[in-house]
Design brief:
about 40 residues; mainly alpha; about 25% helix; elongated; Uracil-DNA_glycosylase-like_sf
Length: about 40
């Protein structure tokens, strides 16, 4: 169904209390990950 579409799937860090890495600079990490995916400039 998606053969004709240019679809990419990516992931970013989820800001979860159970994830210590996500609690340190989440906004900066998420922005960097979105830039790597080409979603954020």
């Amino acid at each position: 169904a998606l053969d004709d579409l240019d679809v990419r799937i990516g992931k970013i860090l989820h800001p979860s209390p159970a994830n210590p890495a996500a609690n340190r600079g989440w906004a900066e990490q998420a922005s960097a990950q979105l830039k790597e995916l080409g979603i954020w400039h």
